[in-house]
Design brief:
The structure is a single chain. This protein is of the alpha+beta class. The chain has one domain: Nucleotidyltransferase, domain 5. Helix content is about 40%, strand content about 15%. The chain contains eight helices and five strands; from the N terminus they run ααβββαβαβαααα. The chain has helices spanning about 1-5, 10-15, 75-85, 105-110, 130-135, 140-150, 150-155, 160-180, and strands spanning about 45, 50-60, 65-70, 95, 115. A three-stranded antiparallel β-sheet has the order 1-2-3, sandwiched between helices. A two-stranded parallel sheet has the order 4-5. Strand 2 and strand 3 (about 65-70) form a beta hairpin. The protein starts with a helix and ends with a helix.
Length: about 180
């Protein structure tokens, strides 16, 4: 009896490697991307802190958001800058941190007639003039982020879909900054 049972498992395993599905086209995704299904379309990315989303804001001098943009957590800030700038009206100056320091962005701002108040990156060879007194006004952006993140659903992103998360941010921004 022992000789009959020894080969039983091998036959079953061998059948598993063949095409034993009833519907050949059905099955789990093959995992050609490094993200789960649909994750790359929902502004969810991987960074050192885990799965995150970046919120990019363009605010006025009073700290009121005018343009919102979501990107995945590992995306560079300079990538979202072109979308933010295109969706806004030209202004006298744009204040941004050094993550937005790039030649293409500086040239596009100059073409719009906007003065770029962006500190130079440490590794920049050709330095641009920088006004540290005007840069002090950039705290309006940081205060806007702090005010938005007072709401726990925004700070921790409870929403699975990017459109729902963006709608929540817009609702909170409307309540905090536009209705007084």
């Amino acid at each position: 009896m022992a000789s009959d049972l020894r080969g039983a498992g091998r036959e079953r395993r061998a059948a598993r490697h063949g095409d034993d599905r009833q519907f050949v086209g059905q099955g789990a995704p093959l995992g050609f991307g490094s993200t789960k299904r649909g994750e790359r379309f929902q502004a969810i990315g991987r960074s050192r802190g885990g799965r995150t989303t970046k919120i990019h804001l363009l605010v006025d001098e009073h700290g009121r958001p005018h343009v919102l943009h979501l990107t995945a957590g590992q995306a560079s800030d300079i990538v979202a800058a072109a979308d933010l700038i295109d969706q806004s009206r030209p202004s006298a100056r744009l204040l941004a941190d050094r993550a937005y320091d790039g030649d293409a962005l500086r040239h596009s701002l100059a073409a719009r007639g906007t003065l770029a108040v962006i500190p130079n990156k440490i590794n920049r060879v050709n330095r641009f003039p920088f006004d540290p007194e005007a840069y002090k006004l950039r705290n309006a952006v940081e205060r806007a982020f702090c005010r938005l993140k007072d709401f726990r659903a925004i700070a921790t992103r409870y929403d699975k879909l990017a459109r729902n998360f963006l709608a929540g941010i817009c609702l909170v921004a409307t309540l905090c900054f536009w209705i007084k």
